[in-house]
UniProtKB/TrEMBL annotation:
Annotated stretches, region: Disordered: 1-33
Name assigned to this protein: Uncharacterized protein
Domain of life: Eukaryota
């Protein structure tokens, strides 16, 4: 149909946005201290989330 052709010709905004590559994060090899601190922060965040979730679950049981 004509409408189908029109939608194919104009790409959705999501596609055009994805064509712009995001700035690559600094690799741990370049800055090992920053990379390790980021990993450490992520680990502590996950641990705190898990502990709070366990506390919530233990309340219900």
């Amino acid at each position: 149909s004509l409408s189908h052709v029109g939608t194919e010709q104009t790409p959705p905004p999501r596609k055009t946005y994805l064509t712009v590559p995001p700035a690559p994060p600094p690799s741990p090899a370049e800055d090992p201290i920053k990379g390790l601190s980021k990993i450490w922060e992520a680990g502590t965040l996950v641990n705190s989330d898990l502990s709070s979730w366990k506390a919530r679950v233990s309340k219900f049981h």
